[in-house]
Amino acid sequence: MASFRSATSTQAYALGPELARGGEGAIHLVEGFKDLVAKVYLKPPEPAKAEKIRAMTAVANAELLKIAAWPQDGLLGRDGKLVGFVMPRIGSRSDAHELYSPRSRATSFPEADFRFLVHVAGNVARAFATLHAAGHIIGDVNHGHMLVGGDGRVVMIDADSFQVSVAGKLYTCDVGVPLFTAPELQNRPFRGLQRTPDHDSFGLAVMIFHLLMMGRHPFAGVWQGTGDMPIERAIVERRYAYGAGAAQRQMKPPPGTAPVASFGPAIEALFERAFAKAGSRPTARAWVDVLEALKRGLVKCGSNDAHFHASHVGSCPWCPIERATGVRLFGTKLSTTAALELPIDIGILWSRIMQTSPPPPDPPIPSTAAWSPPVGVDLPNLWPKRLRKGGSLFMAAATVAACNTVLGDDIPALAYLGILAAAYSLWPRPDCAKLAAATAEIKLKQARYETLKKQWGSEASTVAFHTLKQQLEMAHSQLKGLPAERTRLLDELQRGQEKIQRRKYLERFRIRNATIPDIGPSRRATLAAFGIETAWDIKQGAIHRIPGFGPVLVSNLMEFRRAHEANFRFNPALPIDPADIAQIDAQLRRRQGELVEQLRSGAGKLSSLSTDVPSARARLLPLMQQAWDEVQIATLKQAAA
Fold first, then answer.
1. What mean pLDDT is predicted for residues 563-581?
2. Into which CATH architecture does domain 1-89 fall?
């Protein structure tokens, strides 16, 4: 068993079993210290690296040890040279990437909903804020450095690669991941590069975007220009694919994504500052505040108990995505009940509904009955105008008759024109000003009557009662049919077992873990932004629709799928996965609850309508009669003008 001396005391550390191994070193348990592990380098670190580790152990404190696997003490070999260090032991945790995507989340965090994602995003921002407050920089920001526990606590690993400042001396971070690197640092060598908290803030914003946007990268969108637009170039040119200005940047979000606005204007504005604008980016502390506000304001979706969204949003942003993509975003951990029971006794509820008497039949409304002028109202006098019209017509007819008597049938055309001109001179002329005023008054009165008529239809008519009754009858029928619906869905599930087994088999092969020709980190992120993460997701038509993916890349991806698909074997003896049955039962239970609640409240609503309709009629009918009288009187005024 290997043993090493402490670099700061007379303590000796005996190594236990190896837990993990990477390209730089191996992680071991430490005998007698259940809260520590040791990282031992595979080859002695360079003097500068050893000096950095000694400096980091000198400034280790409770705050740093809480949020990072920070070097706590150096390990010295027999020659007195540093060979590694001890650091806090991190409990069972998963790479933050496992939380981004709905598919990986279903395995690693099956109980996680959007509240948990916002909580974790806030903890990531808190970890950054703690590190920055101590004067240090992560530098190499990426999801592989962030481990998340089931409680949402975030711990950063590979802390020995951080940029640290100790006693006035700067130890740089000499590595980086382009997809998390700020525009001004793209294509620059990382060795010896001095970074700032503002550079970290770009990577932090990318991580938060990944968490809130189901694994999408903020610069992996649909490029509207010509040529290729890899993510690295989009970052340099600040072509943020989301937000109000995306069209001006010739970008648009990939399909199946929630609008950034659904998280609220504060978060939308911070993303815009982080990705689309030059200047200082939102700090980690600024993110903590807005994410905490978002978490406090989350409300449950009215249609799906597993969905939570910001309270300012009128409708759930997750429901349409699930309908469009067929991917379950949240709530993948389900109880595995063997059968769906419907124990609700709906007989009493339905009896109450059927016993509710409808309101009396609708009485005629004023516009459907013969109109009589209200008593005591002076109506416009139409007789002078009628007499002038009659007189002009009589004069014209008498003149024509006289001419016919004197001249016979040979009446000159000019005589007819003279007769018509004389009749027209006697025809009553309208008062244009009065006519316009009367016409405007008719429109105003008619609009008021139509408003009251609409109110009558919703409050005083039996239509609302009978419509609700029909809806309740349909709900009652659907509720009774749920057991049969379950049988039908299980039959469909059984018939589709070959496809289900194939899908689950191919979903085991993640693109991000595979070696596929010409598919590097940038293209993997672009594929993920379009919902293509596993061999199952690779379909020729879907790949062709992604900008920048031509025949060669499509062929390489399809070959990756075919290679794995060739090893698939359908097992007809394999039983249906209980989780698939549980998902059907969960959907039916949710629907059952909705229908029962509809029936439970239905009797009361029907009873209220029966009571309220007569009183609404008594209130509205006089108002409608008055409004209709005003319409008729205005019409008479128009005729008299």
1. 87
2. 2-Layer Sandwich (3.30)
